[in-house]
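Risk register update: the risk of archive-format incompatibility is retired. Evidence:
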Amino acid sequence: MAKLSFSRQILPVVAIVGIIVAAILVARSQPDRGMTQPVETPAQAPAAQRGGSVAGSGVVEPSSELIEVGAFIPGVVDRVYVQAGDQVAAGQPLFSIDSRDARAAVNEAEARLERLRRSVGAARTTLNVARRQLALYSSVTDERAVSRQEVIDRQGVVEDAEARLAVALAEVREAEAQLESARVTLARLTVRAPRAAEVLQVRTREGQYATAGPAPGNSAEPLMTLGVTRPLHVRVDIDENEIDKVALERGAIISPRGNATSRIQASFVRAEPLVIPKRSLTNASTERVDIRVLQLIYALPAEGHQLFVGQQVDAFVPARRASAAK
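Archived output:
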């Protein structure tokens, strides 16, 4: 049997097999360019407004906007009175901070005020005695019985008693102010709802340390978030190059993101007069990050939808007629 030559017989066969395998791998790695129906129908203008609407992205928010609640005074949270989803009334307690130090300060201020009030009583008694003695000395006309110097001394005693009473009264007023300050501090340790609203989120638990704030510009998250959800509003961003096309004071069609078949009629509420940089990005390839937007606020109906605060939506705002735009 003839010996096979590696360079003339085996190597060409290996090369041909490699070429075939590479061609198969390349063919399989090519993307499928066939036309198929999309899994989800993209958002599109309603038929009634097609060709006559301006599209914008929006976010569902409470009609009161978000009410972010924090602690006035830092400390350990000793009790949380509500949970997410609760409806609260104005002034209803939300959570409280450990108040043992504040209660002790109130008790101390009350005791000091009581002591000073008793001092005022003693000063009044001293003043009354001094005045009666002065009147007694002044009623004696015989200088041989009561000298002029003794009358002057009694007048000095009265004036001294009056000054001591004035100081005691001032100390009482100071103690009353300190007591009121201590009571205010104690009251601020119980954070209450600023208005009737729904609890949207609770970020604190009993036993956690709560910092005071957040102050303006602070990145710390609020301890609780409230909002009036009856009704809900939608904040729609309209790009600045399409502001002139929008027909204000007319309703809009709202569709939840990813569900173009759901179309909700929303009523116009107001237009924010300040054009601001765009914050809600859709990640579209044609979207510019340096664009400015006009924000339009629309009210959702009370029923007929299942939208939640913070949910992104697609909005279709009626466009002005060509004659009106000129």
